[in-house]
Write a structure and sequence with these properties.
The protein is built from 7 helices and 6 strands; from the N terminus they run E-E-E-H-E-H-H-H-E-H-H-E-H. The protein is an alpha/beta fold and 167 residues long. It has 2 domains: 5-68; 86-163, Winged helix-like DNA-binding domain superfamily/Winged helix DNA-binding domain (Arc Repressor Mutant, subunit A), CATH 1.10.10.
Length: 167
């Protein structure tokens, strides 16, 4: 039996963010989108077709809005890691530990998960991060400190870092 997915849409300072939830926790988020309809389309493409019940959300929408504005340091949220292979999960969990307003390199992350030569593999994990904002891949930069690749574009990456007080 497959786990049915629900969704919620949050309007943040940066745009509309979609949340996808399973019975095990937060499964995915979207990056901020210009319109509610864009965020809705994306959560539906991720398999969520039913709105989440308020009781299942608690204060998650408010915390996501604060996070998108750089006002939330540690977003303690129950994440559904069930579909993530061990290397990906290790990289994503280590990324969550990067403090707000700070950056780390792909190579640093590779070393932290015990695979010091896997910086490119870490980059692939970041490129397919199912939980942007919650797993702050915007805090991961190139070996020389430059802003590199980001699904929402480098302007969004810079905006998120600036909102956190970095750079």
């Amino acid at each position: 039996m497959t786990d049915s997915l629900t969704f919620h849409l949050c309007e943040t300072d940066l745009g509309w963010v979609g949340l996808v939830l399973s019975s095990h926790g937060l499964r995915a988020t979207t990056l901020p989108r210009d319109t509610r309809d864009e965020a809705l389309l994306e959560v539906m493409e991720l398999g969520a077709t039913v709105p989440a019940r308020d009781a299942d959300l608690a204060d998650l929408p408010e915390r996501i809005c604060a996070l998108a504005s750089g006002r939330y340091d540690n977003l303690a949220v129950h994440v559904d890691w069930n579909l993530e292979p061990s290397f990906r999960r290790a990289v994503l969990e280590e990324t969550q530990r990067i403090p707000s307003g700070q950056t780390r390199t792909y190579g640093w992350l590779a070393e932290r998960v015990g695979c010091p030569r896997a910086a490119r593999a870490v980059g692939r994990v970041m490129a397919t991060n199912p939980l942007p904002l919650v797993v702050p891949c915007h805090r991961v930069v190139g070996s020389n400190g430059s802003l590199t690749g980001y699904g929402g574009g480098l302007r969004m990456k810079e905006t998120l870092l600036r909102a956190e007080g970095a750079r």
